[in-house]
Amino acid sequence: EFVRLQVLSDRREVGSGRAESTMTRLIAEAKAPARASIELGDVTHHNLKQLKKINTVVLPVSYNDKFYLDVLESGELAKLAYYNDVVVGAVCSRIDTSENMRRLYIMTLGCLYPYRRLGIGTVMVQHILNCVERDGNFDSIFLHVKVDNKGAIEFYKRFGFEIVETKQHYYKRIEPADAHVLQKTLTKKAAAATAAAASQPSSASSPDANQQHVDEQEDAPTGNGPEAVDAGRGIGGAGLEAAADANVHNNHSSIQNSTSQQTPPAPEKNR
To answer: Rounded to whole angstroms, how far apart are CA atoms 157 and 163?
Structure first.
């Protein structure tokens, strides 16, 4: 197994009074391992800088210190994504109790461009869905997506999200400034249990009837940034492959994905 990284950056050749500039390119040639590892790890004081770097590269907005201090207290609701032990993405969410509801708000979700379409975004979203399912007491999950971010909209629709509102002039200093609110409505465990019990025969006719019983931004409003997931344009994207069988565990969860794709260039190796 080997990886060769060649960097050609702004090379200028002068000849006959003419300068030619070549675009920066990263060329990775690798014999990819038979199995690639996608893992989710906790956000801690030791790797907080890596989260900041991911958000800086992926999202065209900046977040202040309070945002990151809150993320440190988010537990399972904030995770770094690793591809073969390299930090390549992150998801940050929080609990929102406005409008007399208990909702989960996805603030940021993004993946570095070379690592998209590898299922990493799917793993992060699936982890959040697993969190709310285990809790059982959320009314919905929601996020903001830029209106022209078609890739993100289609990505989230695959998980049951739908556009429920469009906010005009949501973003600052970003065009277009409007954002769609995408939401996935959930059924609380208590309500589901009540409905299930109501559908059962009465105890008089059946003796066994009773046996069944996530935000502070400097450049934009609270949200998951203009580009939560942008598969097509290279800003704040995430992998779009379906991974319904992805089994994400707590703390340092590991998913082994078979892949024949080439391993993309690695930005960092330390955690």
So the answer is: 9
